[in-house]
Amino acid sequence: MISMMKAIRKLGDKDSRRLISPIVLSVFDSLLNSCMYGVMLFVLLDLAQGQFQTENLKGYVLVLVTVFLLRCIVQAISFTQAQCLGPDISYRLRITLGNHIRSLNLGYFNKNSIGKLSGTLLTDVNDFETIVTHCLCDFIKVISFTALSMIAAVLINWKFGLAIALLVLIAFPFLRLSGKVSERNYEKLRNANHNVVSRIVEYISGIKTFHLYTLIGSRFRRLDDALQNLRRESIRTEISILPAALSFSSITAMIVPVALILGTWFLTAQHMNAASFLLFVLLAISISSMMTVLSSLYPQVRSISRAADNILSVLGEKPLPYEAEKPDFKNYEISFHDVSFGYTKESSVLHNLSFTARPGTTTALIGPSGSGKTTIISLIARFWDVTEGSITICYEDIRKIMPDTLAHQMAIVFQDVYLLQDTVINNIKIGNPSATKEEIVAAAKAAHCHDFIMEMENGYDTMIGEGGSTLSGGEKQRISIARALLRNAPIVLLDETTSSLDADNEKEIQHAFDHLMKGKTVLVIAHRLKTIINADNILVLDKGHIRESGTHDELMHRNGWYAHMIEEQRKAEQWSVQN
Ligand SMILES: Nc1ncnc2c1ncn2[C@@H]1O[C@H](COP(=O)(O)OP(=O)(O)OP(=O)(O)O)[C@@H](O)[C@H]1O
């Protein structure tokens, strides 16, 4: 309970103060509930002492109706307050989580699956909201009403009160055990759920491949296994809690028979009058029914507070550190100083790289697949931090620059273009949310996508399918170039892959790239001979080392790896022309 309250304070932040009122109202509701029993006691006493009068009954009924109405109002207010608070907390938590996840090193996403992260953002936050909106107030009501009933029982007849307290104490370890089992299973069930989400995302994203290899439906074993596992874990969760929960229920179910036996005994021995006897039975019934509610509520609260732990563990991940909010960039020169990097501690992908990309120049990165070209670009964008050495922009270590400020200095066009399920205009606007329609159209024209956009059904207001599924590869790439052009950032990081495009599309994209690169500090993963030859500096990479660097003429003159590669590419181009 204490750890749950701590988690609510931490995660609910300022909003958690809004919980004080529903909690206080829940305790007040329990007091009012106890009052109803108190009124019944007076009625029973009157009856037992033969002083029952119809006039008195009217007074009792009036008090009962007033207390009942008051309870309705208190419950309505407390319920509404808790219900309104839940979505507010969920909303703020999801925004906080989203911002926090964005600030993490990309290595975090290698270690944590989509299923796990979406599970935290959706399921864990939902479960946490359930604690706040439903469980917490109910839990407090049950505990406070049980405590008040126990006190009343002890005050009326301490032996009787003690007997009930003893039964509750004997049953309590089973309640704790059911909570522990439920908490442990929650983790397993959650992992099974995350696995299913990951497999479903994989299934939908790779549906074309799975279709091709006839791996759809039940033949897609990975999804099938994940679903089977979820079914197994769900059944196991339900069953494993049963022994402890049943033991608790069975012991607390004895409260009423024990009250009857003890009451009859006290009555016969004249230690108690008939009114007290009836009241005890009433108290025993209410405590017993509270215990039934507690037996289902407690494991739920315990398991759901695991959700809070999961959210806290994501928020506990350290974001990328930085020092300067807005460094004073005098130019946009990018320098690598003895940079080494590995995605894992065990293996290194880049080894002691040093080079400088000057403002207004183009640096072409070339080399075989896996030589580290994309990794260099990712390090400049600070998707990852270097393992050794440093990367500077205008002599400022990028690790000291606030990630958002750094991102604003860059326009990036990667091979895998991601478009949102939104209108064309909103997809381009991502580059600069405050851009006007005229600026967007100008960027689209410069990126050579205005014409095909105008041919679409609703022009710039046409909806694009998720991930850009309704567009061709070339169209997607040109929209992403328009986005980058709109950003008008001083640094341009480019992956020039155009291999999947036809000649017309390739020409259009090349024009778009030319616009994008004009006057900027450009690093391009170059695939086209023209880009390579025209680059101001060419870095020839091999297995994470810079084998050669210089202009085209310098490297040709050296007659090394680069000259050999150019010769091979020329031969290939001639071969394709002749055929
Ligand atoms: N996210 C990642 N986690 C672990 N290893 C990675 C990751 N991304 C790339 N690598 C590894 O790092 C090495 C360099 O990859 P990188 O993508 O930088 O090469 P590249 O030269 O851009 O290749 P290509 O031309 O095929 O795109 C490769 O061995 C690759 O397997």
UniProtKB/TrEMBL annotation:
GO MF entry, a single one: ATP binding
Cross-referenced InterPro entries: AAA+_ATPase (IPR003593), ABC1_TM_dom (IPR011527), ABC1_TM_sf (IPR036640), ABC_transporter-like_ATP-bd (IPR003439), ABC_transporter-like_CS (IPR017871), P-loop_NTPase (IPR027417), Type_1_exporter (IPR039421)
Domain ABC transporter, residue spans: 334-568
Any Gene Ontology CC annotation: plasma membrane
Compartmental location: Cell membrane
SMART domains per the UniProt record, alphabetical: AAA (SM00382)
ABC transmembrane type-1 domain boundaries: 23-303
Residues spanning the membrane: 20-45, 57-74, 162-179, 241-268, 274-298
Keyword Flavoprotein in annotation: no
Membrane disposition: Multi-pass membrane protein
Family matches, as Pfam families: ABC_membrane, ABC_tran
Keywords annotated in UniProt: ATP-binding, Membrane, Nucleotide-binding, Transmembrane, Transmembrane helix, Transport
PANTHER family, sorted: ATP-BINDING CASSETTE SUB-FAMILY B MEMBER 10, MITOCHONDRIAL, ATP-DEPENDENT PERMEASE MDL1, MITOCHONDRIAL
Protein name, per record: Putative ABC transporter ATP-binding protein
Species: Oxobacter pfennigii
Record lineage: Bacteria, Bacillati, Bacillota, Clostridia, Eubacteriales
